[in-house]
Write a structure and sequence with these properties.
two-stranded antiparallel ribbon, mainly alpha
């Protein structure tokens, strides 16, 4: 849209100056479009594992232990929930590995829903992801980063909300700029931040093992005593635990960029997620070596309390490395979610300019900038707990639908090649759990927020009918000049190749 106008304008302007014809500029534009195809920087096995570990280990393990414990009430069930969440994330990721090697397109759930159910569910997924789940996840992580990063400067009291929100907005802007400038730079930054966060995870785990070896086991005696187990409490505990594991499907957003995806996608999952599960369980054990259940529930920031008790006077290391951890998770989320906007734009389900590629940087810059801008809007109301509720409710609706797509395609698309084929019982279990996770908060604590979320998802149908199905001409008349000016401003072109 607007690309022809841009090409002609460039040709006319140069033609006036040096007498060259408009056609003489076309091969250059074609080459740029072919070059733009190369923005897909290949991601190997190590980078794939780093992407999974780096995106999953973010703010969750430093925030969620309190919420999981509050729901189940005792150490034993708490550790069991953390291990069960890891198993569920691994099973879910294995389902996504089959989908990702069967349909090797970037964009996560989007191409799978498109293949199984057609354009409407795929559009609703992209609509919800682009405007609710992905930006709210980005906003939650950056708000968590801001809280930990500002905490050392306000000893004894909570940092002002204005400081937290400004710092979170600054983090979003920096991450957006880095990922817009270079895919390679974004990938290298991810690897560095993953290494930094593994240092703090290692420090906490090793400290815990040393304390256990010294005989600090009193908090683990009668570990199932006083537990409050019910369907709703287990469901809500899973909700908070799975927030810490979210990101297990991130590699499916960049399948086109993976070197040898048939081998590296499942290997990254099989190595990455169990590694995270072991880390999470050991970190929780470490927390309980120095804190009783009551003390952990009273702690404002669990990891900081742990650092104050174990690492003093070097306890400042904890908030610093937690800040690295959260910013790494935010970077991984931005790196992959920019691809979703790009894929949806390419299919004509979003503004066409969002699928364009930067001529100089070979990155999906318009998609990443759009994503960052929406995330900043979410920071303004900025309540982390509410954002997590919105996010988890919406995201598990589509996880369940995607796993259903896998089951459906086993019968409707038998001709598709499946380099990885998992037992059918695995997707059935994951789908049943996702139904439970969607219904649990509604049954145990019904809120209008969930109704608004469902209404927002369904409102995407109106947008689809008006702008995608019927393709009214007046929105195109408005968007053409906008697209053309954005092309000139951002120096972007369509990614598809032009036949010479």
């Amino acid at each position: 849209m607007g690309e022809e106008s841009l090409r002609k304008r460039k040709g006319e302007d140069n033609g006036k100056e040096d007498g060259q014809s408009i056609q003489s500029h076309e091969p250059q534009t074609m080459n740029l479009q072919k070059q733009a195809k190369l923005f897909l920087f290949p991601v190997g096995l190590i980078s794939g594992i780093c992407m999974i570990v780096g995106t999953i280990i973010g703010s969750g393990i430093f925030v969620s232990p309190k919420s999981v414990l509050a729901n189940v009430g005792a150490v034993g069930p708490c550790l069991t929930i953390w291990a069960a969440c890891g198993i569920l994330a691994t099973l879910g990721a294995l389902c996504f590995a089959e989908l990702g090697t069967m349909i090797t397109k970037s964009g996560g759930e989007y191409p799978y829903l498109m293949e199984a159910f057609g354009p409407i569910p795929a559009f609703l997924f992209s609509w919800t992801s682009l405007l609710v789940t992905k930006p709210s996840s980005f906003a939650i992580i950056c708000l968590s980063f801001a809280e930990y990063a500002s905490a050392p400067f306000y000893p004894g009291c909570d940092p002002p909300q204005v400081v937290i929100k400004c710092l979170a907005a600054a983090a979003i802007v920096i991450i957006t700029i880095v990922n817009s400038l270079s895919v390679k730079l974004g990938s290298y930054l991810q690897n560095f931040l993953t290494a930094a966060k593994m240092i703090i995870v290692t420090i906490i785990i090793v400290s815990g093992i040393v304390l256990l070896a010294q005989g600090k086991t009193e908090n683990f005696k009668d570990s199932f005593k006083d537990s409050k187990i019910s369907v709703s409490s287990i469901g809500l505990a899973f909700y908070n635990g799975l927030w810490a594991y979210d990101g297990w499907n991130q590699l499916n957003y960049i399948t086109e960029e993976l070197k040898n995806p048939y081998r590296n996608l499942p290997l990254s999952i099989i190595i990455g997620i169990p590694l995270v599960t072991v880390c999470y369980v050991l970190m929780n054990i470490s927390y309980f070596t120095v804190m009783t259940s009551t003390e952990l529930l009273q702690s404002q920031a669990v990891a900081v309390t742990f650092g104050d008790r174990v690492l003093y006077p070097a306890s400042w290391i904890v908030p610093l490395f937690v800040a690295f951890s959260t910013i790494g998770s935010a970077n991984g989320t931005c790196f992959t979610a920019g691809r979703l906007v790009y894929v949806a734009g390419r299919e004509g389900h979003m503004l066409k300019v969002l699928s364009y590629i930067s001529v100089k940087r070979l990155t999906p810059a318009p998609a990443i900038i759009f994503y960052g801008a929406i995330a900043i809007i979410y920071i303004i109301p900025g309540d982390i707990d509410t954002l997590i509720n919105y996010f988890s409710f919406a995201v598990w609706i589509f996880y369940g639908l995607t796993i259903l797509a896998l089951i459906v395609m086993r019968f409707t698309r038998k001709e598709l090649r499946r380099p990885i084929r998992i037992p059918i019982i695995i997707p059935v279990i994951v789908m049943l759990v996702s139904i439970l996770l969607v219904l649990a908060p509604i049954i145990s604590a019904p809120e209008l927020a969930y109704l608004y979320c469902v209404l927002f998802i369904l409102s995407g149908l109106i947008v689809y009918i008006l702008f995608v199905h019927f393709k009214f001409s007046w929105p195109q008349k408005i968007s053409k000049p906008i697209t053309m000016h954005l092309q000139m401003l951002l120096e972007v072109v369509p990614a598809e190749e032009v036949t010479e």
